[in-house]
# Entry
Amino acid sequence: MKSYIDLLRTPGVGRIIAAQLTARFPSGMLSLAFLIHIHHLQGSYGAAGLVLAATSVGQALAGPLTSRWMGIWGMRRVLILTMSVCAVAICTIALVPMTVPLYMVVGLIAGLSYPPVQPAVRTIYPKMVNSSQLTPLFSLDASAQEIIWIAGPVITTFLAVQVSSTVAILVAAAFLVGGGIWFISSPELGRVRIPRSRRAFGAVLSRPTVLLATVVGFLLVGSCAAVEASVVSVFGQEGPQAGLVLAIWAFGSIIGGLSLGHVPISPWALARRMFLVFVGLSLAMLFLNFWWLSFALLIAGVGIAPALAVIFAIVSSSVKFSDTAEAYGWVGTGQLIGAALGSAVAGFLIDANGATGGFVAAACLALVGFIIPTVFRRHLPDLRGRDASPIPDTEPIPVQPS
# Structure
């Protein structure tokens, strides 16, 4: 724990983590809030699913592009523009009655304009701490973000049920704007300038490490989405058991992130952490009762935050500083697509085979997520004793002939 205490004593680190978590808090609120709101107005989960799909597609398409814009126009300008448009779109969904196609259009706009806070903060981190602190910082960040997925749905459900779904969406918008302003006003955003990338858009995916991180992130988050659907299908939406099991799962992720954050990253690190996720999800298939699922998902959770931390670290160490924001944008897009497809596949299997089918889907995705970094481990960097900071951007210096 000493390494984390030292990190939080580093000027600005605690503040920037808190600010970016607040700005990203709507990620754990909006999907559920939109689902409840559209179902309440339209009387159809199918209509709500279409709006959520449009929003997710917008986020997936925009992630790499808005991240790259930060190297062209600066982080603050891009974040202010996207935050403003996204807040208007979210409030429109909350306050303006529309037809389903119009809800989809506005949801698409909200997704396209979702602020690229995550790529921004992960680009800033290497400039805030020394090289030995960077990997623990990624682990601390990956663990802390579990707060979003624990508290976000709880707050949303309480507000939507006890007050109204409109209020739930507006509170998410308040977090987006308030947290966004806090993050944008952080001094670190003024001190760090992302150089304009000289590579074509998307060329960063030609780096095997970035492509592997994107694919494994897709599989990891896909398995997580399948687990969420499966747990809800086991316990239903009425009692507290589903929420408690998912909270224990997230708590396991926090424990894993903090426990393994200081462990040096070898080419085997990602495979080992994904294997732990696979083992836990395989055990979950055996018995579908509260205590067994809590135990199995606690094991699976221990691998999640450490796996995400490895993904962030290997991407950081493998690209030039000017390409880091776009690289993280692609990783985020992979995770969004994984969440959408994981939920969809699990849903079909749950309909056909019950909750066990959803857990089978989750375990299979985690298994592939273990196999890929195992087979292609030679493309993963060995960061033991190495700096995980991005590759510096260099330019030729003109020299006048004497």
About this structure: The two ends are 57 Å apart (CA to CA).
